[in-house]
Design the sequence.
């Protein structure tokens, strides 16, 4: 029988060193931005009843679940929006009006196919509850934009789409409700070969080709304007005009790196309006994803609008590390002393730490052993306290 004491379960990893420091720095920066915009920090349980993440009585296949001692089925946090919806709808004492919540939390999901993918995700995000209309959509995307900037990320694109546009377009094209669910699933999995086959059975060649092109192509303002011309007279046109208005308002705020992309979809099938994703070069998935989900809260007993986004700290930290965008380096000293200089060592090291220097006190029998240890573990110097005096030994870099 295999012994797992020294193994980590598939889809999980240990985090340490500079990667851990960068993640903590990102957490601090994004929380500072969220709170400066009036968002209140919330923490929900890591374990919830499985019903919290099961919409319309259907259990999501990506849930991590377990049974407690009472025989109740629980699930690890799968979706912070759902947890916050449960919190808001179960607290009747909450004041009426818009509520703003922000969070940093680990979420857990089984991927469809493993292929080396993570099962645990460190997320930061916001939910703007009870807010509707263009102004709230603008404010949320602008907040996501500022969050990226405060993490020193400037080279990114915002992919903007609309669930309501796709829904209305399918109605315009006469696609039945049952077929729409399958189409959404194929869009989500990027299976455009199967999608083309399905569309060819229900639509004429022009409409089928139009929808496939919509999934495969994206573009900037000119692309949107061409779509507006093509769909003139259809009810789905209003959704495109809304996106153009949204673009113009964001552009007035200095946010112009927008690409219109109607292929973006999400594991969270409750989006009802705009959908957006932020991408950086080299990342396999979006750094930020979000959108409007005005129907979600009905599942928990209250009819409330909501728009929000989640930031994948794991992806952002990896990008910031590889591009040296966040500096987490500090001078790092190893401190040793003899018995006579023990009190002096502690007093002097307090002053060094006040200057921002990391000082680690470890006992060694000789300065030679201390220098070898310091070299192997990334210290800049060894400070030796001996005979009530101190001496700084620079460490030779590897």
Sequence:
């Amino acid at each position: 029988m295999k012994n797992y004491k020294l193994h980590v379960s598939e889809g999980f990893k240990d985090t340490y060193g500079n990667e851990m420091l960068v993640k903590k720095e990102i957490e601090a920066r994004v929380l500072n931005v969220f709170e400066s915009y009036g968002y209140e920090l919330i923490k929900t349980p890591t374990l919830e009843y499985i019903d919290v993440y099961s919409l319309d009585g259907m259990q999501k296949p990506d849930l991590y679940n377990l049974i407690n001692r009472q025989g109740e089925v629980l699930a690890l946090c799968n979706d912070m929006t759902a947890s916050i919806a449960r919190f808001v709808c179960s607290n009747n004492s909450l004041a009426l009006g818009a509520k703003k919540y922000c969070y940093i939390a680990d979420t857990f999901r089984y991927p469809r196919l493993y292929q080396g993918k993570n099962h645990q995700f460190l997320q930061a995000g916001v939910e703007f509850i009870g807010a509707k209309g263009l102004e709230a959509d603008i404010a949320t995307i602008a907040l996501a934009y500022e969050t990226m900037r405060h993490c020193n990320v400037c080279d990114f694109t915002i992919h903007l789409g609309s669930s309501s546009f796709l829904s209305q377009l399918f109605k315009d094209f006469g696609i039945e409700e049952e077929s729409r669910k399958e189409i959404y699933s194929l869009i989500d999995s990027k299976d455009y070969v199967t999608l083309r086959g399905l569309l060819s059975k229900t639509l004429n060649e022009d409409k089928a080709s139009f929808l496939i092109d919509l999934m495969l192509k994206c573009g900037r303002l000119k692309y949107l304007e061409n779509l507006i011309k093509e769909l003139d007279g259809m009810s789905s046109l209003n959704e495109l005009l809304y996106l153009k208005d949204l673009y113009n308002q964001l552009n007035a705020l200095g946010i112009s790196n927008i690409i219109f992309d109607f292929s973006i979809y999400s594991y969270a099938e409750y989006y009802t309006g705009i959908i957006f994703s932020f991408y950086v070069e080299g990342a396999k998935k979006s750094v930020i994803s979000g959108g409007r989900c005005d129907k979600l809260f009905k599942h928990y007993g209250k009819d409330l609008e909501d728009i929000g986004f989640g930031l994948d700290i794991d992806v952002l930290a990896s990008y910031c590390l590889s591009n040296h965008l966040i500096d987490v380096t500090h001078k790092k000293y190893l401190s040793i002393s003899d018995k006579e200089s023990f009190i002096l060592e502690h007093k002097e090291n307090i002053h060094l730490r006040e200057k921002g220097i990391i000082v680690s006190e470890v006992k060694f029998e000789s300065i030679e052993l201390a220098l070898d240890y310091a070299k192997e573990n990334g210290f800049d110097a060894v400070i030796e306290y001996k005979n009530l005096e101190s001496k700084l030994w620079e460490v030779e870099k590897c």
Remarks:
- The CA atoms of residues 171 and 200 lie 16 Å apart.
- The longest strand covers residues 99-108.
- The chain has a mean pLDDT of 91.
